[in-house]
């Protein structure tokens, strides 16, 4: 029935028509088949849920899939019907006309958060000239959307920071961390650290790690002498610090959840990658996250619950104005840097479980745009199992997958005793819901900003 409703009002391009036809064949048997009208460019989304797998390039996805469900299995993130690739390069700080081919999370996050590329290390400010760039979360707030920002990293880490702050350097996370951005300090008349700005932005739901930043003392402005947490409470935030506090949090106030002093605890563990002759093939140890810390899926579920109740409760918005939520699986990247395949895969699987929460929500809220993507590629690669005469000069670990086969994961983008590096590859972007057709093909990271902006009616 839904096919009849809008079809005559839209013009399909050849590409989209072909894609929709292909999707129709591929998914026609699914009970939860999403309506055609949502695949095509028919305008506004009520809600937007943006998932960022930090460092989750195609090889990280493939490694997690092979290990957890087997080579022929599919993760939740594999089921999004429309998929493209986007380029992720940054700009050079000293000459912003030239690309920096390997981005960090700050520059790449700035690209989708603002629609403008910048140089590595910058948080929603311009390369070289240090001007503030308006963010998609700020646009959503202006249009009446309630907003949420969830991460397994510190909430002041680059990916959550790009939505809610403008500083010249990603290290300026708390009021005492401002050595790299003295001009941004509150005592210098600036907007303050990332932690201060995240609270001052009035984001409705903030969940993640990084309590150490919010325990620091503010050095200027109307909350001088108070901690960032105290300033949050003074601005109407309920503050929770463990899983049970999160579970019992009620709608009606803004919520700041800080569940670890630093990054949140990891889900899995195992033996690290090492150079040849390596370790015995391994299975990972699972279920290691302490129970007082919520999972990413728990945080996503609660964020959606609170944001949805807020939009329908005390605030009265138009029918098409719901919530904007970003969810980051942060430690895929951090464990990739460290060359820890089990920890990396565990975080990728936990991220996938959070995506499943959103996809289940979207089954009954089909005017929700769900986007799943990464900020940049990373080091881990699946390579042939090593032999004495043929093996990587880097470090590696061989895992026993869900197929019962051996898979060797290699880390060789830096010296083996150093932090492994990001890569400059394009990465996957997948979507469903309004505007989702725009991710198809090869686009750029800045295009995601415009997709989101059109979905919330800002363009
Ligand atoms: Zn990284």
From TrEMBL:
A Pfam family cross-referenced in the UniProt record is Alk_phosphatase
Q: Which InterPro entries match?
A: Alkaline_phosphatase (IPR001952), Alkaline_phosphatase_AS (IPR018299), Alkaline_phosphatase_core_sf (IPR017850)
Which interval of the chain is the signal sequence? 1-28
Gene3D superfamilies xrefs: Alkaline Phosphatase, subunit A
- Specify the superkingdom: Bacteria
Q: Where is this region: Disordered?
A: 174-196
Name the needed cofactors. Answer: Mg(2+); Zn(2+)
Q: Which PROSITE patterns match?
A: ALKALINE_PHOSPHATASE (PS00123)
- Keywords attached to this entry: Hydrolase, Magnesium, Metal-binding, Phosphoprotein, Signal, Zinc
Entry similarity comment: Belongs to the alkaline phosphatase family.
What is the protein name for this chain? Alkaline phosphatase
Species for this entry: Brasilonema bromeliae SPC951
């Amino acid at each position: 029935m839904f096919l009849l409703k809008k079809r005559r009002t839209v013009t399909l391009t050849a590409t989209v028509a072909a894609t929709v036809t292909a999707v129709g064949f591929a998914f026609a048997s699914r009970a939860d088949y999403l309506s055609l009208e949502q695949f095509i460019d028919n305008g506004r989304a009520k809600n937007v849920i943006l998932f960022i797998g930090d460092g989750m390039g195609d090889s990280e996805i493939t490694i997690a899939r092979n290990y957890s469900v087997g080579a022929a299995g599919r993760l939740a993130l594999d089921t999004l019907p429309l998929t493209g690739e986007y380029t992720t390069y940054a700009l050079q700080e000293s000459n912003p006309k030239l690309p920096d081919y390997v981005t960090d999370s700050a520059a790449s996050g700035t690209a989708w958060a603002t629609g403008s590329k910048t140089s590595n290390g910058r948080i929603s400010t311009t390369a070289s000239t240090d001007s503030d760039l308006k963010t998609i979360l700020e646009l959503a707030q202006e249009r009446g959307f309630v907003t949420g920002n969830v991460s397994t990293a510190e909430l002041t880490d680059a990916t959550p920071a790009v939505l809610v702050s403008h500083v010249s350097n990603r290290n300026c996370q708390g009021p005492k961390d401002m050595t790299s951005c003295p001009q941004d300090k509150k005592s210098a008349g600036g907007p303050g650290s990332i932690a201060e700005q995240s609270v001052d932005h009035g984001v409705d739901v903030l969940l993640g790690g990084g309590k150490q930043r919010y325990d620091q003392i503010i050095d200027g402005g109307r909350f001088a002498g108070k901690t960032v947490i105290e300033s949050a409470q003074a601005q109407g935030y309920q503050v929770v610090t463990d899983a049970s506090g999160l579970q019992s949090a009620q709608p009606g106030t803004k919520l700041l959840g800080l569940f670890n002093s630093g990054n949140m605890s990891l889900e899995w563990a195992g033996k690290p990658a090492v150079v040849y002759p390596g370790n015995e093939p391994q299975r990972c140890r699972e279920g290691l996250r302490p129970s007082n810390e919520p999972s990413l899926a728990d945080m996503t579920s609660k964020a959606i619950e609170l944001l949805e109740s807020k939009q329908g409760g005390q605030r009265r918005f138009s029918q098409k104005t719901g919530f904007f939520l970003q969810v980051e699986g942060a430690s895929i990247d951090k464990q990739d840097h460290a060359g820890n395949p089990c920890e990396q895969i565990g975080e990728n699987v936990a991220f996938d479980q959070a995506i499943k929460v959103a996809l289940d929500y979207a089954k009954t809220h089909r005017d929700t745009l769900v986007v799943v993507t990464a900020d940049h590629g990373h080091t881990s690669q699946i390579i042939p199992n090593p032999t004495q005469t043929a093996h990587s000069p880097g470090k590696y670990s061989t895992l026993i997958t869900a197929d019962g086969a051996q898979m060797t994961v290699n880390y060789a983008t830096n010296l083996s005793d150093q932090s492994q590096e990001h890569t400059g590859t394009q990465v996957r972007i997948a979507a469903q819901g309004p505007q989702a057709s725009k991710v198809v093909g090869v686009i750029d990271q800045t295009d995601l900003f415009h997709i989101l902006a059109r979905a919330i009616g800002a363009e």
